[in-house]
Design brief:
The structure is a homodimer of 249-residue chains. The first copy, chain A, starts with 9 loop residues before the first strand and ends in a 17-residue tail after the last strand. In chain A, 25% of the residues lie in helices and 20% in strands. Chains A, B: InterPro entries: Class_I_gatase-like, Peptidase_S51. Chains A, B: Keywords: Hydrolase, Protease, Serine protease.
Chain lengths: 249, 249
């Protein structure tokens, strides 16, 4: 808080791109339009989380064009770092978080994206894996570790973790694998671990500078190390999570 | 195949320690007794996958003592490497696979355990995370990456991957997170990835030298890169998975 660099930060962190019964980005398209506003004309898309980047870019392009925005996919750029430096807005889509983060490192894009978002204040939209990599680390992703990234540290656009696709325990299940809540509590058994915001499918977090607000319809569950998890309705002010000193939570 | 080192290998790789409605290791205790046989008197337990290692060792000790075996927990040893060198049998329990693998590396136990199992032929029992680390890598674990291990490469006691707690898709689900099958198929989108044996809860794989057999009651689903997944009944001979040359599959 109070760090002038972060005062310009603008993020829309979406739990999931597609909600059951709806189309791609349909459940959050109003928020996307409002978030990007009228100044943005083109969005830079990062399709690294899926294997077929051409097909992924095509789907994203169709959706953003239907909303009135042009879309460039970074996988078509000859100089991805330079493309980031010129981007008006960035959208990182979902898929496998390990694959996505590894490609961001491989292409040396962590610092350019951080600079563009935190210093220059261009809008950042993340969905699912793209929301995971916006946070401090990917340690609370649900994905399989199909490739080995050089670090679990991510873009660090916010100083906490998010668990997208947050899923409440199924009381009728006979499956013995850990529930999502139990997995997050295991994370908090480790020292110096940060708060985890469990964003249910259909939820989004809007961050503008030092202000964070829960959007969508399904609410969120917040896990803070050493405390009992808490439930939060849409509209909740989560600005306190942007405090860089977790002792003050 | 034909490597004399691996001819002595004896592994019992269990999908899950506790089956719905049963006690700890109850569903596989007959297989454990038969596997360890009458020559083994004490088992070396590795509780690294759970945070409370004392409680975990107590639970495992009670179970193994009820079956007539003594149990030493490696977390009580002053010299874990030396303790591995003297072990009659090793049991690595479940929990978080990343935490487990990191502690194996931190304590420099990868090579000592490999030597003891592959060269000296002592029995190895793995359950859940303990089954993941027995394979070539942890790239098909279901767990959250709560800590960063120095590699995803694991003990490599078998030259393929296992997905424990394998879960069939729930056709009634409205959740949009990837199904287990889809996650494994994403792994196989990466180059040079190995077969993945999806062991349902209640399934075990018995490996004796160059022979591997599916045990338990629930069957398994096999994923080979570029091929359609296949279903396998209990009793299936999976020895072909032990072939070190995936081209021959």
């Amino acid at each position: 808080m109070g760090d002038p660099e972060r005062r310009r930060r603008r993020l829309l962190l979406v739990s999931n791109s597609t909600l059951h019964g709806g189309g791609y980005l349909e459940h959050c398209q109003e928020q996307i339009e409002k978030f990007l506003g009228e100044n943005v004309r083109r969005v830079l898309f990062v399709p690294y989380a899926l294997h077929d980047q051409n097909a992924y870019a095509k789907m994203a392009r169709e959706k953003f064009e239907s909303l009135g925005y042009g879309l460039d996919s970074i996988h078509e750029s000859l100089d991805p770092r330079d493309t980031v430096r010129e981007a008006e807005a960035i959208f990182i889509g979902g898929g496998n978080t390990f694959r996505l983060l590894k490609k961001l490192y491989d292409n040396d894009l962590i610092q350019p994206i951080r600079k563009r978002v935190l210093e220059d204040g261009i809008p950042y939209i993340g969905s699912s894996a793209g929301t995971n990599v916006a946070t401090i680390s990917i340690s609370t992703t649900n994905d399989m570790p199909i490739v080995y990234p050089p670090s679990f540290l991510a873009l660090g656009l916010v100083p906490f973790n998010i668990n997208p696709h947050y899923l409440d325990p199924d009381v009728n299940s006979t499956h013995m694998g850990e529930t999502r809540e139990k997995r997050i509590l295991q994370y908090h058994e480790e020292p110096n671990t940060l708060p985890v915001l469990g964003l249910r499918e259909g939820s989004l977090l809007l961050v503008e500078g030092d202000k964070a607000t829960l959007q969508g319809k399904t609410g969120a569950r917040l896990f803070v190390r050493g405390k009992t998890p808490t439930e939060h309705e849409p509209g909740t002010d989560f600005s306190f999570l942007l405090n860089e000193d977790p002792e003050k939570l």
